[in-house]
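Hi all, posting the design record for the shared folder.

TITLE: backbone redesign
STEP: 1 of 1
STRUCTURE INPUT:
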């Protein structure tokens, strides 16, 4: 009755079904884990943004790699801006998705070390090769509040070619790279400045990271699991249809019964 399942096309179809089910289940769990990661990330950001600011020297030091647990921690630093070694970071967008640069200015601390401060976004120069007009940093001793971020690296960013850039322009914010330029120790990571706010609208301070939306990963996970459940159901439907069609074909092809003929005797 079900001998047709041993045919070549049905064996192939059955094997495909057996492969699709665990694949879709695994894809569902992959999306579910991404959902969990996003929820945990949002909780980390919210907790660190709510935490009281602490001196940046309590969170990082020269050569220190900022751990994920300290991302977006609010920190303070007191010193004087070293505008002579100020650089801009190319290809950065603002809240309106306009492409420009970030202004990166070292803040010299009382102990002789420095911390990098991302003062915010400004438009790039028209020809992209010239140094843009940067609003001056506050003079004298200043206390900066900001969100601690980890150094940007070529591995994490995907940016490989860092050569051939115009003077005082960089592609990545990296404390070790800037320490070589400054000739002094630089604390690992950098601060995204949140205060004091600039006198005008430029530089535009970097907005808080999104920590409200969770994306559609959970919905995608449920979809994959529904697909996984639907595949065997579809296979059963096809098998029953094939059986019914074969039975109908067999009945249509059977010889018709003949009526008995009257005797001539």
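Okay, here is what came back for every position:
SEQUENCE:
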């Amino acid at each position: 009755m079900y001998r047709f399942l041993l045919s070549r096309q049905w064996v192939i179809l059955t094997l495909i079904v057996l492969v699709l089910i665990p694949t879709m289940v695994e894809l569902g769990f992959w999306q579910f884990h991404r959902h969990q990661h996003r929820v945990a990330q949002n909780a980390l950001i919210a907790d660190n943004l709510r935490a009281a600011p602490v001196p940046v020297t309590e969170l990082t030091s020269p050569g220190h790699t900022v751990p994920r647990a300290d991302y977006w921690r609010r920190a303070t630093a007191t010193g004087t801006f070293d505008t002579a070694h100020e650089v801009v970071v190319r290809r950065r967008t603002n809240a309106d998705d306009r492409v420009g640069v970030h202004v990166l200015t070292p803040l010299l601390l009382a102990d002789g070390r420095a911390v990098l401060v991302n003062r915010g976004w400004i438009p790039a120069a028209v020809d992209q090769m010239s140094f843009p007009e940067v609003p001056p940093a506050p003079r004298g001793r200043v206390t900066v509040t900001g969100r601690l971020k980890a150094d940007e690296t070529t591995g994490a960013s995907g940016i490989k070619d860092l050569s051939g850039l115009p003077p005082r322009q960089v592609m990545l914010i990296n404390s070790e790279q800037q320490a070589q330029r400054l000739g002094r120790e630089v604390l690992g990571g950098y601060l995204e400045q949140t205060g004091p706010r600039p006198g005008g609208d430029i530089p535009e301070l970097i907005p808080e990271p999104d920590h409200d939306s969770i994306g559609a990963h959970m919905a995608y996970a449920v979809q994959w699991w529904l697909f996984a459940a639907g595949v065997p159901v579809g296979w059963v439907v096809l098998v029953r249809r094939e059986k019914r069609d074969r039975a109908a074909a067999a009945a249509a092809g059977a010889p018709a019964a003949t009526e008995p003929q009257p005797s001539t005797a």
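COMMENT: The longest strand covers residues 99-109.
Let me know if anyone wants the other runs.
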